[in-house]
Specification:
The protein is mainly alpha-helical. It has two domains: 117 residues; 143 residues, hpI Integrase, Chain A (Orthogonal Bundle). Helix content is 48%, strand content 5%. It has a three-stranded antiparallel β-sheet with strand order 1-2-3, with no helix packed on it. Strands 4-5 form a two-stranded antiparallel ribbon. Strand 4 and strand 5 form a beta hairpin. Helix 2 crosses helix 5. The protein is globular. The mean pLDDT is 89.
């Protein structure tokens, strides 16, 4: 199906979208498709890479970049720090593209959806205080986490563990600093972890991990990237480095963008939102 025909068909049949979301998605995806057509040679929207998405989004952030090149996470961090409103608009743009490519996959136009996580700004919260997910929203989020597999991201096991640790109540910065030395296997299928303080000491709250988190942890550990010397973080990235504290929010925003209910939520679903929501409405019985 032609990319523009797909856009029109998707939005015409997406009765679950708010009218404001439909207008925003139409505008942003149309901008993207127009940019693709204007390149020489033209970019095929169904066979493009993340470098193409980055090149397009960079043209929309020229003023906010303050003369910096749009060349990676540092540039996005600059926008997030100095122009947070523009960063939130940018993230909504990434959500619009994610929803469009979800529709393209559902209609057989593409086999895999592009992973746009690293194009998110990393703004760790909306301007308003975090608002907990409703039970329905939490159920949808759990579905999104469970469906986040190898067709979504290379390090999907890491991403799922991050999401579940947030649901345990750890804040985004705590998730990035969880220390392997303060992760305890009690030998009965039960695991405990201490939320770290800023000196990486085990003085924080003890968390008895929920079964979903334990399952994600056990699946992740054999595939954990070998840490660099003196790195004890549970979550590691390429090169064995610790996880950046902004990444939990980026991956949660991208997971949420795969489902319409969460993609158009106001305020948006952030890592802080998930950490404030938790697995339970009330503490589980002891």
């Amino acid at each position: 199906m032609d990319p523009r025909t797909l856009l029109d068909t998707w939005l015409d049949t997406a009765t679950h979208l708010r009218s404001s979301s439909r207008i925003e998605y139409q505008r942003e995806v149309d901008r993207w498709l127009t940019w693709c057509a204007m390149q020489r040679p033209p970019v095929d929207p169904y066979r493009c890479g993340i470098e193409d998405f980055a090149a397009w989004t960079g043209t929309l952030l020229t003023r906010q970049l303050d003369g910096r090149p749009f060349d990676g996470p540092d540039a996005l961090a600059h926008v997030a720090e100095h122009h947070p409103a523009a960063a939130l608009t940018h993230d909504r743009r990434i959500t619009a593209l994610t929803q469009y490519y979800e529709a393209a996959k559902d209609r057989g136009a593409i086999r895999l959806t592009p992973d746009l996580t690293m194009l998110r700004s990393g703004v760790d919260r909306d301007a308003s205080p975090p608002r907990r997910l409703t039970p329905m929203e939490r159920a949808v989020l759990l579905t999104c986490i469970g469906m986040w597999g190898p067709d979504r991201a290379r390090y999907y096991r890491r991403d799922r563990l991050i999401a579940y640790l947030l649901l345990e109540g750890l804040r985004p910065a705590e998730v990035s600093r969880v220390d392997m030395r303060h992760l305890y296997d009690l030998g009965t299928g039960v695991w405990e972890v201490r939320a770290p303080d800023y000196e990486y000491e085990a003085v924080g709250k003890k968390h008895v991990l929920e079964p979903l988190t334990v399952a994600a942890l056990v699946e992740y550990l054999p595939h954990r990237i070998r840490p660099a010397d003196d790195v004890h973080n549970l979550i590691t990235v390429q090169g064995g480095r610790p996880l950046d504290s902004g990444y939990p929010n980026m991956i949660i925003r991208q997971m949420a963008a795969t489902h319409t209910l969460l993609a158009q939520r106001t305020p948006p679903v952030t890592a802080d939102t998930v950490a404030h929501t938790g697995f339970w409405d009330t503490p589980p019985p002891s």
